[in-house]
C-alpha cells in the first residue's frame, strides 16, 4: 500500500474517532442537562426551564436546546441506549429518533398495554449501534404504529409547524407544515393576491409572486388593524433613524428587529401612513412623561422596544411582545416614567425583579443582572463575548 493510502486511512480513522468522541460528549451533556432539570437548577439564574437556560446562557437555538433536553429525558427511560451513547456507539440524532417512543403520553400508553420497555430499549440499542440510521427510523416507526395502530386523537394543530430563522443581515428564511385544512386556507389567501397582481410584462417567478403575496397579506392585516394588540400597542413596523438622515435620505436606519436598512428605504417606509414611526430628536416623540403619568405610553414603549430589543434579564431571549416595561426606580418611590428609567422585562423576570432580583443598565448600554443574594448572573465564561 502506498504511503498516501496510509495517510488517508489515518484521516478516516481520525474522523471516525472524532464522531465517537462527539457521541460520548453529546450523551454526557444530555445526562447532565437532565440532572440540572431534575434539580431545578435554572431557577438559580431566574430561568423557568433548562431549555430557556440553554438558549440564553449557551446561545443555542430553540430547536437545539429542546433536542438536548429531550435527549436527557429519553436516555433516562432507555438505559441501554444511554450506555451505548456514552460509549460513543450511538449518535445524538439516533437518540432523538428513539426519544419519539418515550414521550410522556406514549410511555403511559405502553404501560397500560403492558409493554416491557427494557425489551424495546434493547432492540433500539442493537439497531442503532449496528445498522444504518434509516433502519432505526423504520424500527421506531413500526413500534409506534403497533403501540397506537389508529394513531392519536386527531388534532389539526399537531400537524402544523412553522420555523422562522432571522439571519444577521435581517433576512428571514422559514419552513413549515400545515394540515390539509390549514393548507387550504393558506393557499387560498396567498393565491388571491397572486392572481390579483399580474401586471403586463411581469417577469417574476411563481415563487417570487407567492412571496410578494404573503408580504401583501401581512401588510393588509397590519394596515387594517385586524391583528391582536400586544402589550397595549398595535403591532407595527418600527424604524429608528437619525432626524438628519431621514431628511437627506443618506446614511442608515435600524428596524425594530435590529436589521440595518438604508435611509432611503426608511424614507420610503415613512411615506406610508399605515407604518408607525419613531423619530429620536428634540422635536420627536416625547420620551420623558415625568411623574404625572405612571403608565408607559405607546410612544415610550416603542422607544424602549427599539433600545432593548427584548427582555434585558441576563440569559433571557423573550421578544418584545412578551415583555412589560419596568420602572428601574419604582414609580411609587419617585421614579419617572422615562426612557432612562425603563427596562423591558418578560412577565416571569418582571415578577422576579419585584422579588429580589435586580437589573441595571451600564453607561455603555450593557444590561447586567443580580440575584437576591447580590451575586451577578453571567453567561458561562467559555461562551462569554470577548471584552472590547
Automatic annotation (TrEMBL):
<dbReference type="Pfam" id="PF02720">
    <property type="entry name" value="DUF222"/>
</dbReference>
<feature type="domain" description="HNH nuclease">
    <location>
        <begin position="299"/>
        <end position="351"/>
    </location>
</feature>
<dbReference type="InterPro" id="IPR003615">
    <property type="entry name" value="HNH_nuc"/>
</dbReference>
<dbReference type="InterPro" id="IPR003870">
    <property type="entry name" value="DUF222"/>
</dbReference>
<protein>
    <recommendedName>
        <fullName>HNH nuclease domain-containing protein</fullName>
    </recommendedName>
</protein>
